[in-house]
Amino acid sequence: MTKQVRQTHFLCMGLMILLTGVTVDTAFAYDDCYRDCMDQSGCWSVGPESSGSYCSGTQARCSSDCLDKGPSGRGKIYGAIAYSKRNGAYGYSHGWTNQKKAEQVALKNCKENGSGCDVEVWFYNSCGAVAADGKKVAWGQGSSEQAASQQALEKCNKGFFKKHCEVKVSHCSL
Prior knowledge:
By secondary structure, the chain is α+β, with helices and mostly antiparallel strands.
């Protein structure tokens, strides 16, 4: 692991501890699990294979897997996406220990950008996405932003008006 990657990872771990209340012992157990998972995938290496959607999806999967295995047993970190069909405004949240708070924050963030916002999707230890075509709105959930976006697009493009939808927003809970 390079020094810069290690420093960034430990900074993120410290932030996770502050935001989620995970104990230090839990954080180190998580850190070991996460580092091992990322090492096995090749995402700690330096070079073109260590960046892009593969490693982004791997980061989400490793985070989710390691939180679920954590000694605290609480493991679920929630996020949500709110969207306005009326004007395309959106808001999202991540890092919350309960679904209700994740939804409230996403809705508040959306309302700061427009009116007519509704929570479209909530998720934990994973990612969500919203796709729309102006009339129809659909959501997806998956282990990566790419997987969630693909699912949202497939749902949105079903029916008479196929292939007019596009992903408006995607986000992960961690």
